[in-house]
Amino acid sequence: MTEHLTMHDIQLIADGESESPTHVRECPQCANALVGTMQLKSAVRDAMSTGSAPASLRRRIRPQRSPWMLLAAAAAITAIVLGASLLFVPRQPNALGELADMHATLLASPNPVDVISTDKHTVRPWFESKVPFSVPVPELASTPFQLIGGRVVYWHGTQVAYLLVGKAAHRISVFVAPQDFGGDSAPNVSTLKWQSGGLHFVAIGDVPQADLAQLRDAFNR
Amino acid sequence: MLRMAERESFEELALPLLDSLYRYARWLTKNATEAEDLVQEAYLKGLRGFESFIAGSNIRAWMFRILRNTFLTSRTGLRAIPPVPLDEEMPDPETPETNFVQRANADALRRAIEDLPVEFREVLLMCDVEGMRYKEIAEALSIPMGTVTSRLLRARARIRKALS
Questions:
Q1: Which of A17, A41, A91 sits opposite B128 (nearest CB)?
Q2: Complete domains list, chain B, with CATH
Q3: Closest listed residue to residue B117, CA positions, set B73, B159, B145
Q4: Chain A residue with minimal CA distance to B18?
Q5: Which of A61, A81, A155 to mutate: most B Cβ within 10 Å?
Q6: pLDDT in tens, A114-124
Q7: How many contacts, defined by CB atoms under 8 Å, are there between A and B?
Q8: B112, exposed or middle or buried, with CB in 10 Å at 0-12, 13-18, 19+?
Q9: pLDDT tens for residues A74-89?
Q10: Global pTM value
């Protein structure tokens, strides 16, 4: 049995300063500590996000500008703030790495999903009152995949639908949200991002990349 | 007198940071009016000292450092400096523990953050809200990266304790 990680190690992983070791995937205690730290980070982010600078301050810093310039600047800054808030502020450089960590920690948990069902007609309605968008759950009957269940997870302070899919002994996590998750790769696991019907999807699993593409096709059918 | 091109280049780099700098000022001073004054002064100092900024280096760390130095020499800032160096505190227990923060505890969490020493509050803001890497935080605060790590550890331990 490998020794447990220290809170120091766990913090470095949660802050994206070091890679998540395989121990986290195998040890529920360390996985829980990592999830706890990530939840704390997310809660602190929400609590400390005080909103944008007041217009009075903006005027004090750029008093010499003409009204048209101010208007243009305010519009640009509003667009940046709006755009940034839609894209999960602050954008992390290792966004998919964070989702891969969540994939690993959820799988390390004895209860990775809250609704356990292989039936899309059970899982899809379960999400209805829990996330502010309709979660597409694919028909997997004629594919090598099996639906295992789903749950709601919080990522950067936003609700994300989580679907767990099996392929033989392998497990694939699918994260679904109306916003782009950012990032483009994660170490040690296969990842695939796609968009469909105004939603953004990220599939993560310890499977060949072709399997994720096949699963994506099942979602898009 | 600064040339127009220099002023424009400063504004182009520094103005997009206004919201971040204001957020930082709010959490340093815990007062909206003082925060506005502090940000304005930091921009003036930044503009005046822009010649010393090395093109291509990190403008966010540079502006955060100016704002912080301005704060530390203000009356509120002088009061906020702790009497005992924070890094001499006892280290935290080394075993992992589960401390889930309930979303319903937002008010308690806000109070816990407000009660933290300013040195702890600012690293949390830079790491968790601004998404800055340890290296950038270390540059903004002129402290070693190990100190960033230990301040974050202690800040989070204090919050967990306050919420438990």
A1: A41
A2: 1-81 (1.10.1740.10), 99-164 (1.10.10.10)
A3: B159
A4: A53
A5: A61
A6: 888 888 888 88
A7: 127
A8: buried
A9: 777 777 777 766 655 4
A10: 0.56
